[in-house]
Amino acid sequence: MAIDIATRVGTGGARRGKRAVRLSGRDRVTIGVMAGVPLLVVGGLIWFPTIASVVLSFTNWDGIGGVTTAHWVGTENYRQIATIYPPFWPAVKHNLIWLGFLAFVATPFGLLLAYQLDKRIRGSRVYQSIFFMPVVLSFAIIGFIWQLIYSPTQGLINNLFSDPSHGPVTDWLGNPKLNLWAVLVAVCWRHAGYIMILYLAGLKALDPSLREAAAIDGAGEWHAFRTVVFPALRPINIVIIVVTVIEALRAFDIVYIINRGRNGLELLSVLVTNNIIGEASRIGYGSAIAVILIVISIIPIVVFVWSNFSEKQA
Amino acid sequence: MTSATVTAGAARTARRALRLPRVGLHAFLVATAIVWLAPVAWAVFTSFRPYADTAKYGYVSVPHTLSLVNYRNAWTQGEIPKHFLNSMIITLPAIALILLFAASVAFVVARFSFWFNVPLLIFFMAANLLPQQVIITPLYEMYLRIPLPNWLSDTGLAYDSFIGLIAINVAFQTGFCTFVLSNYMKTIPSSLGEAARVDGASVFRQFWGIILPLCRPALAALATLEFTWIYNDFLWAVVLMSSGDKRPITSSLTNLQGVFFTDNNLIAAASVLVALPTLIVFAALQRQFISGLTLGAQKG
């Protein structure tokens, strides 16, 4: 076997590709193991369940007993979550608000911070560290920490701006009209720092002559940014869009810590989880919502993969 | 800013014109920095005040006593040492495996020109971009049905076992590290590998002896990043672990809520304790942390 491959490769001489690679049989096995073992792990624990989610979403399997007890029900699960599953539409709305808030408030704020800190100003590193610090905290801890701020009687905000021992207090996390926005402020606290670091790297990689040219043209700062700097950041912008969409779809920990994702904080991710470990476990519902998440997340994934590989060839 | 390259005279006027906006800019940055630090500062401040002190004087007040009593209570009542240990049992092996797997795949993709390089890389990268909830339902049912020998899992199942949590963290995070490392390895001149090949070094020797040591900066950056991410994991452990006392620290916060109820001073102390490891790692290895993130955002 080894000889066979060696001679075939050998007589082939300089083959297509970067360089002529002479691989012995043992080397082929090495490469097979190096790529194959991780392939099996990721295939078995990520891609197999992804496909299983799609399949299960069309069945009525209850999770008890073997999968063979499942029956095809077509799109029944989808019809039911859209019509008779009360938390579904609020969750969709909240995920959209979440995405909108990240895309139009938190991300632009991160870009603003990056742009300002990219100017050579005193203490830039200190500011960067401060703004980035929340990114190393988990969303679960962020939920804990912000509860100390929002708590109706013991919280910082109500104690700072009113006297909670007299009169009614604002229950920031308990009021379903307010709590989503209160949570989004905490989410912005983390997201903006993340975006800032990514944009700072993008800005540092820019050709400085770009901005100089714009400045000499007498363009105002905003104009120069809009017409010269921002378009030049296109590669990083794609990464930012992908990060923002995925973060909005993944959102889970913080609302789960605050109130298990109820009462104004429903999210699609929470509904999936509730159908596994929550009070009502319907495998079909959870899978159907998972498929909706797949369909949405495929867009940024394809955009990212495509932009990464198409520009590499160019 | 731009003044360095234009003529000296223009620079002087530019600088004078800049002075006023600069004051405004610093005011904006200082104000933002205060807002950014406030939540953590507030948690630290509250954590050092005994409950009686805040009950008597209010939360926004000058403290009359400061003590570590909340920390002592959080540490013992929340069984924090045990959950810290659980976190390490999961995080450290997971990091080692992720880096090994990712470096292996990255080596194959970056140092050889097989037809399957691009599909293989997409296979790994896209797996890391999926929202976790997409796979959690079938994964939960799988974990309930995968038998493990008792020396690996005391439940006899992948469900509710350390090995199960390590496995899913590895599977989920390998894609990101593969992407970063393959980009990194492509920057290593191919002549290095060729020289070794001429000397008759096997593929494994080229990987382990030559390429991997050169990747040390990238590996350090990724290890820092992965430590934080796996330590901070919440969902996998909440869904795939039923026993409260086996859960890693971040997901054990759900238990702490029940234990501490509405004692915000205790919650503050527990928050600080749980956040401390990631804050220390960030403070000590900030450069690695940020370079890992930005490496991931760049194109190869």
Can you describe what's shown?
The complex is a heterodimer of chains A (314) and B (300). Chain A has helices spanning 2-12, 25-56, 76-83, 88-118, 124-132, 139-150, 156-161, 179-204, 208-216, 221-232, 234-250, 253-259, 268-277, 283-313. By secondary structure, chain A is mainly alpha-helical. Chain A folds into two domains: 2-45, no CATH class; 85-313, MetI-like (MetI-like fold), CATH 1.10.3720. The relative contact order of chain A is 0.11. Chain B folds into two domains: 8-70, no CATH class; 74-297, MetI-like fold (Orthogonal Bundle), CATH 1.10.3720. Chain B has 300 residues and is mainly alpha-helical. Helices cover 74% and strands 0% of the residues of chain B. Chains A and B meet through helix 2, helix 4, helix 5, helix 6 and helix 7 of A and helix 1, helix 4, helix 5, helix 6 and helix 7 of B.
Write the layout of secondary structure elements.
The complex is a heterodimer of chains A (314) and B (300).
Chain A: H1 2-12, H2 25-56, H3 76-83, H4 88-118, H5 124-132, H6 139-150, H7 156-161, H8 179-204, H9 208-216, H10 221-232, H11 234-250, H12 253-259, H13 268-277, H14 283-313
Chain B: H1 8-47, H2 51-57, H3 69-77, H4 80-111, H5 117-129, H6 133-143, H7 162-186, H8 190-198, H9 203-214, H10 216-231, H11 235-240, H12 253-260, H13 264-284, H14 286-297
Helix pairs in contact in B: 1-13, 3-13, 4-5, 4-7, 4-10, 5-7, 7-10, 8-9, 10-14
Shape of chain A: globular
Mean pLDDT of chain A: 86
CATH superfamily of the largest domain in chain B: MetI-like
Please state the structural category of chain B: mainly alpha
Structural domain count of chain A = 2
Low-confidence parts of chain A lasting 5 or more residues at pLDDT below 50? 1-19
Report a brief summary of the structure:
Helices cover 70% and strands 0% of the residues of chain A. Chain A is mostly helical and 314 residues long. Chain B is built from 14 helices and no strands.
